[in-house]
Design goal:
11 helices, L-fuculose-1-phosphate Aldolase, alpha+beta, 2 domains, five-stranded mixed beta sheet
């Protein structure tokens, strides 16, 4: 059953707050929509912060051709939502997340047949929520027709599934309402976490050193000592970008330096990017303000988790050209939106 405009708006704003508080996204890197009818849906706008979002800023989009009216642009992933609404008339609520375990596992680029895993990977309840298969869409640059088509194809080929992994990117979950969509997101994160541990063959210690923030000539800086960042720093090597939101922040890779006291090496490694790995001592994240620096730290930790799997399995990171494009988009568009009080919705 579709929602009326007022109800849809209230549910979307509620979902936006839930996404941030639950850790299913960093900042507003995700998007939410609700079906209004067989012809239209309501979706979060592009370049607007969730904290101050109002019902009037949500945008009505046509399912048939992805068009909209008015001065406010809808999410850049509107096409993906539209195509998913075409597939199943019972899907009335869709959430695109950048949740950690699902994103890290997406780099495998594989459909996950839950019936093929041991019984401790997914409970019967989780299978009932997710379906027997978690499909993975082939890679496509953020906000492109290629990504939209790949996600739609994966969903269409797996009619019993309520989620789709997006290689190197994140996930999208669907439900008859917001409650079902979030149940799918939470179940997906738990199941992907168990599969990730089985693929890696070990657990990373959950305890790490305290992260410290300070101001510098580079802007706001955060010395990060989160678990997977520490794991990569212990290896003392440059970390490839296995996730495209990391490619936005650091391009093809995040460089590693032996000592931050080596100012020349630190400046060279940082360059115009937003993060540097420090051998045996975590990483330094840099951005214009505290909120953005914390977002960089969240994305870096998630990418280091993906890298832990990618390096073990000799998986390819985001390609050189794709990384360059994602980085240019971030610098030229989304960073400017942040300066103007907006956000990215990748």
């Amino acid at each position: 059953m579709a929602f009326n405009r007022k109800e849809a708006g209230e549910l979307i704003l509620k979902a936006c707050k839930q996404l941030v508080s639950s850790g299913l996204i960093a900042r507003t890197w995700g998007n939410v929509s609700a079906r209004l009818s067989d012809e239209e849906f309501l979706i979060t706008p592009s370049g607007r912060a969730y904290e101050t979002l109002t019902p009037e800023e949500l945008v009505v989009v046509k399912i048939k051709d992805h068009s909209w009216e008015g001065d406010i642009k809808p999410s850049s992933e509107k096409g993906m939502h539209a195509e998913l609404y075409k597939i199943d008339p019972e899907w009335n609520f869709i959430v695109h997340t950048h949740q950690t375990n699902a994103s890290a596992l997406s780099i495998l680029g594989e459909d996950l047949d839950l019936d093929a895993f041991p019984d401790d990977i997914a409970t019967d309840e989780e299978k009932a929520i997710l379906g027997s298969v978690i499909p993975c869409a082939k890679y496509g640059l953020s906000s492109t027709k290629t990504l939209t088509n790949n996600v739609a194809k994966a969903a269409k080929n797996n009619p019993g599934s309520s989620s789709v992994l997006m290689k190197h990117h994140g996930a999208v979950v669907m439900g008859r309402n917001d409650e079902e969509a979030f149940k799918a997101a939470y179940a997906l994160e738990k199941v992907c976490g168990r599969i990730y541990e089985k693929k890696c063959g070990e657990k990373i210690a959950t305890m790490s050193g305290e992260s410290v923030a300070w101001e510098s000539i580079y802007g706001n800086m955060l010395h990060v000592r989160t678990p997977y960042v520490m794991e990569m720093s212990r290896r003392g090597r440059t970390v490839p970008s296995y996730l495209d939101d990391m490619a936005m922040i650091s391009g093809r890779s995040t460089e590693c330096v032996k000592d931050t006291k080596d100012v020349k090496a630190f400046r060279k490694a940082l360059g115009s990017h937003n993060a540097v790995i420090i051998k045996n001592d975590g990483a330094i994240c840099v951005a214009g303000d505290k909120d953005e620096t914390e977002a960089v730290a969240l994305v870096l930790e998630k990418n280091c988790q993906a890298a832990n799997l990618g390096l073990k399995k000799a998986l390819k990171p985001v390609g050189h050209i794709s990384s360059a494009i994602e980085r240019r988009i971030y610098v030229n568009k989304y960073s400017k939106l942040k300066n103007a009080g907006g956000e990215t919705d990748a």
